[in-house]
Write a structure and sequence with these properties.
With about 130 residues, the protein is mostly beta strands. It is built from one helix and eleven strands; from the N terminus they run βββββββββαββ. Strands 2, 4, 5, 6, 9, 10 and 11 form a seven-stranded mixed sheet that branches. A four-stranded antiparallel sheet has the order 1-3-8-7, with no helix packed on it. A hairpin with a 6-residue loop joins strand 5 and strand 6. The longest helix is centred in the C-terminal third of the chain and has 5 residues. The termini are far apart. The model has no long low-confidence stretch (mean pLDDT about 95).
């Protein structure tokens, strides 16, 4: 089983930046593809970004493309989400997740392709 712990959320103003981190347990971190999702109040969980095990492949949702960047450091068992030019509509609980086998579906943002989830970190963007 993989345990995930997100950090880095907070309250910021529109236009500010935040970097979220997700630390994973386990010795085979580089074999996992990782994703970030978010869930705004009253809405379903939505895909934000995904990254392959090596970090060579990434995918970002259209709503964050050009503003958010997913990356990973396999030596630290950590995946990051750099969020720039934040908007009030980015307000949500952000979750990281681990996928192990359904690569194409996970990279495409399919929630059910991910096996383990963190507890989430809150991001609030004020206008």
């Amino acid at each position: 089983q993989v345990q995930l712990v997100e950090s880095g959320g907070g309250l910021v103003q529109a236009g500010d930046s935040l970097r979220l981190s997700c630390a994973a347990s386990g010795r085979t971190f580089s074999l996992y593809f990782m994703g970030w999702f978010r869930q705004a109040p009253g809405k379903e969980r939505a895909f934000v970004a995904a990254i392959s095990g090596s970090g060579a492949m990434t995918n970002h949702a259209d709503s964050v493309k050009g503003r958010f960047t997913i990356s990973r450091d396999n030596a630290k068992n950590t995946v990051y989400l750099q969020m720039n030019s934040l908007k009030p509509e980015d307000t949500a609980v952000y979750y990281c997740a681990v996928g192990r086998s359904r690569f194409a579906q996970a990279m495409g943002g399919l929630t059910s392709a991910y096996d383990y989830w963190g507890q989430g970190t809150h991001v609030t963007v004020s206008s």
